[in-house]
Design brief:
The protein is of the alpha+beta class. It has 15 helices and 18 strands. It starts with 5 loop residues before the first strand and ends in an 8-residue tail after the last helix. Bound molecules: adenosine monophosphate.
Length: 479
């Protein structure tokens, strides 16, 4: 067997290592040499930290994420989207054929690698390509149209990490297949508005543009290149390269000199074919009808190659001169056919959840509040400890949120934990109660306590909680 190449990431750079082979001496018998398996990574490569640009989302942050997740699911449900989960890894070919070479995502950012079986695969840099692949693979075109699909999860881009720019980022993604009418474009923008609004984000800007059909886009691209070629020396180095590989991306460049130059460049809207112009006009009329404010941004072209006609982006409010794209999308009427499906118009958008959470924090939006346990179960002695697991589960099955500190033996230590939780009821199961089949129920608000049989425990606890709720007692403060 020839030794396989193993690619390992070290200090952020991919290095290719070959397992070391010892030179065999001429006198050695060839077949029976046993070598120890080569370790995949050496000890000193191991760092106890996440990869650059990849983060843990710790429990502290989860209330924000939970609010986002809930808003996404609620909007998906209300607008008739069905959830679809597609794999994190797909054939590299899928992304190259849909997003295309010449884009930053494919040329610079894709995480591509070869599997042990020799397949060239990639971590998804966005959802649409995978969702379209699934749509074609499972013959979903037979379903009544439009077909609305929602997906969410991490996507991967080998970008330069900084605040709001990660290598593993989370997106919520909505795609609608089978309808070319601009009313659908308006509806997905309406939906994006709904999510953003529900999340309590304000001063958010919606930018729209139309880049027309591939033909009108080509005409536009030609005019743009002609204009930029004549003043090439005013472009940054990357944009000079883009002039050859993907000229439309120059409109996206943030370098001052490129921004200045492109502000005088021809605009896509002036090159639209009649149908695309009428399509865009109708979209704007629908948005006006919905009273959804928008800005027409003639420079907006989006970084993915598959878009046709409508493109849009959602931008955060200005943050000391810094703005973030919170999401974006558009029409991709030719993608399904290009990937081998029946001609099917489609539109979709993705929201960047990491940036939405950043914006929520920055503008002090309230995060989701997870319900807190209102009951503490304390136990004392071996028998009580044994019985307590069942009691815990009885309460939990009846919808009572209960917490405990089973690992602690002393009642005092357990009561300290109960105090930290600020519970309204403490159940105490001592040796005597465990033998009798009873439990002590202590109302922490009124300070009263009673002994009840374990069969009646759930009812007794619920009664106290209900009384407390109706009295709107604040949970007692403990030291
Ligand atoms: P795109 O399709 O590239 O416009 O991405 C959709 C959204 O994902 C963007 O509007 C951002 O909110 C978010 N996003 C894109 N790239 C990153 C990144 N590297 N880190 C965090 N969020 C990102």
């Amino acid at each position: 067997m020839t030794p396989k190449k193993i690619t390992v990431m070290k200090n952020d750079k991919a290095t290719t290592k070959k397992p070391v082979q010892k030179a065999a001496s001429k006198t050695e018998k060839p077949a029976v040499v046993k070598t120890a398996p080569t370790p995949l990574v050496s000890e000193n490569e191991f760092l106890m930290q996440s990869l650059r640009g990849m983060r843990d989302i710790l429990p502290d942050e989860q209330p924000y994420w939970e609010r986002v997740r809930r808003s996404l699911s609620a909007a998906a449900q209300d607008f008739g989207f069905q959830r679809i989960d597609v794999p994190t890894v797909e054939f590299l070919h899928l992304f190259v054929r849909s997003i295309k070479e010449g884009t930053d995502i494919i040329d610079k950012e894709i995480y591509a690698f070869q599997t042990r079986g020799g397949d060239r695969v990639a971590l998804r840099p966005e959802f649409t390509a995978g969702v379209v692949r699934a749509y074609i693979q499972h013959g979903m075109s037979a379903l009544p149209k439009p077909i609305r699909l929602f997906s969410t999860g991490p996507v991967f881009r080998y970008d330069r990490p900084q605040e709001g720019r990660y290598r593993e980022l989370w997106q919520g993604n909505f795609d609608v297949f089978g309808e070319s009418d601009p009313i659908l474009d308006a509806q997905v923008i309406q939906m994006a508005y709904r999510v953003i609004h529900e999340l309590g984000l304000r001063n958010i800007e919606f930018q729209v543009n139309s880049i027309g059909t591939p033909e009108s886009r080509k005409r536009y691209e030609k005019a743009l290149v002609r204009f930029l070629e004549s003043q090439k020396h005013k472009l940054c180095q990357s944009c000079r390269e883009r002039l050859v590989t993907n000229p439309m991306r120059i409109l996206d460049c943030k370098e001052d000199k490129c921004v200045q130059l492109t502000s005088q460049a021809p605009q896509a809207l002036d090159f639209l074919d009649d149908e695309s112009r009428a399509h865009f006009k109708s979209l704007l009329e629908y948005l006006d009808e919905l009273d959804l404010p928008y800005t027409i941004n003639p420079r907006l072209v989006r970084g993915l190659d598959y878009y046709t006609r409508t493109v849009f982006e959602i931008w955060s409010s200005d943050r000391e001169g810094k703005k973030y794209a919170l999401g974006g999308g558009g029409r991709y009427d030719n993608l399904i056919q290009e990937l081998g499906g029946e001609p099917t118009p489609a539109i979709g958008f993705g929201l960047g959840l990491d940036r939405i959470v950043l914006e929520m924090k920055r503008t002090q939006v309230r995060p989701h509040e997870f319900p807190k346990p209102r009951v503490f179960l304390a136990q004392l002695g071996d028998l009580a400890k044994k019985k307590s697991l069942r009691l815990f589960s009885d309460l939990e099955k009846h919808g009572v949120l209960v917490t405990e500190s089973f690992g602690r033996g002393s009642l005092k230590a357990q009561m300290r934990v109960a105090a930290r939780h600020g519970v309204e009821v403490t159940i105490i199961l001592g040796q005597k109660e465990a033998i009798d089949g009873t439990a002590i129920v202590k109302d922490m608000v009124s300070g009263t306590q009673e002994t009840v049989t374990q069969e009646k425990l759930v009812d007794a606890v619920k009664k106290i909680l209900k009384t407390n709720a109706s009295l709107s007692h604040p949970a007692p403060k403990f030291e």
